[in-house]
Amino acid sequence: MANLGKFSIGVGDRFAHQAKAQLEACILASQAGVDVIPVWNKSNREHTIIGSEPASVRAAADAAVNDLGWKLPYFCDADHINLSTVERFLPSCDFYTIDVADYIGKTAEPSSIDRFVGHHSELLGAIRMEAAAQSIDITPELLRRTAAKFLFAVQEAGKIYRKIEAAKGNGSFIPEVSMDETDSAQTPAELLIILAAIADEAIPIQTIAPKFSGRFNKGVDYVGDPAQFAHEMALDMAAIQHAVAAYGLPSNLKLSVHSGSDKFSIYPAIHAAIRQFSAGVHLKTAGTTWLEEVIGLAEAGGEGLALAKEIYAQAFAHSAELCAPYATVIDIDPAKLPAPVEVAHWSSAQFTAALRHDPGSPAYNPSLRQLLHVGFKVAAQLGQRYLDLLDANREVIAKNVTHNLYDRHIAPVFFGPAANQTP
Ligand SMILES: [Zn+2]
User: Fold this and answer.
1) How far is the CA of 322 from the centre of ligand 1 (A)?
2) Is 169 found in the same domain as 85?
């Protein structure tokens, strides 16, 4: 049986050059006493923008695992797929992020809503979440309204799951259901009702990705109230534990935090919650690694720095087109973007200080960072020129990739505030 384990990290390797440096971060975690399972994720959207195929992710992951002698499980995630896009992922992937956010709000057959509400009277009233010493209150109106909003989406998830299961076989892959790419956050009560519906569809999910409140912009810190996030996450974890017991969902079911990279201000809350509930978590990152490639190139100086500047200039020139697919998950202030003619004079130190996610540094520029985050298409268009410079500067890039994943992500989330840092 494919089992994701308690702690896992999603890593994105857009140009299939950093799998080894990413796996090094998981090796550091194991050496420090906590196993964190790597999951290489790449969405259909990223494959389409770059012009790559899922087999390239699998090949890079397999090679890294082989080279470094990694003995624990690892997975390749068909990230944010649906019924129409899943096909090309079937040969290479053993983790499926079934994205049904687009179906939220589409109303299921009235008869199936009636049936769901009729079958789930146990969801009514004050449901005690033992683990959190709190209750979730669900009125008949809330149950019906939530079923009307989410049941169709869960039924769609069931169809997608069964298509994958027919191709891959039961138990041979990790199913996740994601609802994060939508307008409004799901409450813990809604999550509990959604989990009951997922159990009715017999989808053995090991992870679920709700939308949390606050903003999870790409590659930058959380925008919102960390205390409210902490409260919400604790109730979500309690709701998951309740649903596992009540509906027979897989016992290792856990939250998946999407756009989870760089959310430094909520990592203490995530760590506190996994401690409090003895729960697992899947922290999903992706583009943060591509930014470390650019940082590494800039740090290398010479041709590397020149190419990093060229990528910025191109991204600046095409920002409207590059930002469009990510409009809901970025907040760029155009007034804060330096002109490319200005950047052309920057030293390695100036470029890396603007881009590197060091919130305490006055030179750190979140707008520039977000623009480059969505600017990976520019590097894809540079093609072999970009890849050759990745190869030529392998060491300095790898150092940045490993350090970013381990010290800024794995350590604060899975080890907590007192975590050891790499030298
Ligand atoms: Zn997502």
Assistant:
1) 18
2) yes
Same-domain check for residues 11 and 73 = yes
Question: Comparing C-alpha atoms, which of 259, 378, 269 is closest to residue 330?
Answer: 259
- 214 alpha carbon to ligand 1 midpoint, in Å? 14
For 273-307, the pLDDT digits (tens) are: 999 999 999 999 999 999 999 999 999 999 999 99
Whether the Cβ atoms of residue 237 and residue 256 lie closer than 8 Å to each other: no
Taking the centre of ligand 1 as the mean of its atom positions, its distance from the CA of residue 116, in whole angstroms, is: 27
Nearest Cα neighbor of 322 from 46, 16, 97, 6 is 46
pTM, full prediction: 0.96
Centre of ligand 1 from the C-alpha of residue 105, in Å: 18
Q: How far apart are CA 237 and CA 279, in angstroms?
A: 7
Within-domain flag for 423: no
Between these two residues, 419 and 377, which has the higher pLDDT value? 377
Q: Report how many domains make up the chain.
A: 2
Per the domain annotation, does 181 fall within a domain? yes
DSSP class of residue 285?
-
Dihedral angle sign, alpha carbons of residues 239, 245, 248, 251: positive
- Distance, CA 88 to ligand 1 centroid (Å)? 19
User: What residues make up the domain containing 252?
Assistant: 7-285+405-415
Query: Quick one: which of 127, 108, 409, 390 has its CA closest to 259?
Result: 409
**Would residue 41 be called left, alpha or beta, if left means φ above 0 and alpha means ψ between -120 and 50 degrees?**
beta
Tell me how crowded residue 340 is: count the other CB atoms within 10 A of its CB.
Answer: 15
